[in-house]
Write a structure and sequence with these properties.
The complex is a heterodimer.
Chain A (H helix, E strand, L loop, with lengths): L4 H11 L13 H16 L3 H11 L10 H13 L4 H40 L4 H30 L3 H7 L2 H25 L5 H21 L4 H21 L1
Helix pairs in contact in A: 1-2, 1-4, 2-3, 2-4, 4-5, 4-6, 5-6, 5-8
Chain B lengths: L2 H16 L9 H12 L2 H15 L13 H15 L4 H34 L7 H37 L7 H18 L7 H21 L1
The chains are: A mainly alpha, B mainly alpha.
Chain lengths: ~250, ~220
Amino acid sequence: MKPGIRIRAGMFLRSLAIQGSWNYRTMIGGGFAFALMPALRAIHGEQPAALRDAIERHRGIFNSHPYLVGVALGAVARLEAEGTDPATIDRFKSAVRGSLGSLGDGLIWAGWRPAWAMVALILLHVGAPWWSAVLAFLVGYNAGHLALRGWGFHIGYHHGLAVAGQLRRAHVADASGVLASVGAVLLGVLLPLVVAAAPPDTQRMLPWLGAAVLACAAGLRWGNQVRTPCVVAIFGAALVTLIGRVLA
Amino acid sequence: MNLWVLAFAGGVAGLDGTSFPQVMLSRPVVAGALMGWLLGIPVEGALLGAVLELFHLGILPIGATPYPEAGTAMVAAVWAYAVSGTTHGAGLLLAIAFALFWERVAGASVVLMRRWNSWILTAGQPPATPAAVESRHLIATGTDFLRAGVLALTGGVIGGAAIAELHPFWPWGGDAAEGVLHVAGVGGAAGALAIFGGWRERWRLVLVGVSVGVLFLAVA
């Protein structure tokens, strides 16, 4: 029996919680079986032994970016419904798990998410109300997030084993490069706005501005290595109050 | 405000960040603003969230890599700032310092949680039945919510007491405290260029953006 629309909708909703039992042994294996369960019930519900066998196979190790896991979920649901050889399904899962992870990391974590976070920060720095910045971030980000999840599930279910070709044709990897470019521009817009947001005391503003420009240049040049000294500077400043409290 | 609200908000932020539904309620700028709104200080909440967000632009939660859990820490830090009763710049500085510390504690708890999940899923060699798979997955998810709630609660209480106790001992003006945050935040944000390809690869695009930003400042 092929999973109907209600079963597929159930799988999609469950896939939102696919990382709920993330662990170092099977990674999202438990979540994958959890999300696939409506389809497995529909396909193997009347054959307890086949259902147990399918659950056993799908609760094993698996990993993917959570937003692209629908590609694998949809494809596996289709393959199970078509009675595909379990060894072929296992090989398919092994083949896609690395690529779905790296595609999603580049596309979402290193592209889409920081881009929308910077949009929110830019809005705050140009004086937009706090709620509009938060709303812009949540609506803009999640429009793409949910569309990606839905699209991934759709192409997975409709193309089965051929889904890798669909991913290539959709130029997902190219989109990561475009988002990285957009991110660089947005960061460029954000930085002068943040630098200019120096403390308002005009007598002290110039040194702070100078220090901020230096910090900016260091960050652009040395990347995330600059994060640690910046955090240490904040901890150091906080430590001053602790020392003051102890000495008082 | 009721401490249950703090625990619930922390639980929601923690769960969103690690497992469900990952709609970014856990991002510092969102969690900070929404927690501030709940506490009647939305602008201060958004400000604290924006500062912490600057440090998080370049952090990638890739694979099994441990990473700081900002959402839970942000909820705790905004609560701590609110209950400390300070409006001084030193209060903001201490709240951010606390958030940067607490997100590490929360991140370490995620690592422990993931080990615990291994045990939940395999303890007693569960049968391969739908009920066993679903119940254990939901127990793991629920435990994650509790973990984040407890962390937000303890963080809010400890952080609030610490900020209230320490902020009068800041030896310089409020502007100096904000200046430290400002400079450190700029450095943290600029460092995020690494995830977009770095300076050598992207300098032209960064300069295009800088031109737009400077143009806006000139017009505004």
